[in-house]
Amino acid sequence: MHVVDAREEHLAGIAEIYAAAAAATPATFDLEGHPPAWWREALAAVDPAAGRLLIAAVDADGSVCGYAKSGRFRDKPAYDSTCEVSAYVAEASRGRGVGGALYGELLARLDASGLRLAVGGVTEPNPASARLHVAHGFSVVGTFVGVGTKFGRTWDVTWYQRPLGAR
């Protein structure tokens, strides 16, 4: 497995991973995946200097086993020094270090971007994601209790932050 800049050929695999997470897990509060046009727009919006990245973990056979994304935290200019990050790993590839490899690469690039802070939300319970964030230098900011409703119940989301740049 190796981590690469996402390209058009990776988008179907990325979309499949996200759609599976949306349909079967509370990891995202989307209820279904995004259409291909959404993913093409995400790829076209990649701007490393602005902290907008899309990278893929690709197996030796070329299949996408995970991806990580960073983007704008909020749609207000004063937040432009902060980005929101996420990573999703195909179910069959979990436990192989894919998430760690993706976050390692994503955060190295963000450290070089000039942005100040990365943030990420983790729907609870998700001990693997919590461990991933802590292992990559994130600290807990706080938890929104019952902030989302999916699958007929409410979910809490714990927010993490990590300073970027020279640390």
Explain this structure to me?
28% of the residues lie in helices and 35% in strands. The protein has a seven-stranded mixed beta sheet, sandwiched between helices. Helix 3 (98-111) links the parallel strand 4 and strand 5 (117-124). The longest helix has 14 residues, at 11-24. It starts with a strand and ends with a strand. It is globular. It has 167 residues and is an alpha+beta fold.
SSE diagram, text form:
Elements: E1 2-5, H1 11-24, H2 36-44, E2 53-58, E3 64-72, E4 82-89, H3 98-111, E5 117-124, H4 127-135, E6 139-150, E7 153-163
Parallel strand pairs: 4-5
Antiparallel strand pairs: 1-2, 2-3, 3-4, 5-7, 6-7
Helix pairs in contact: 1-2
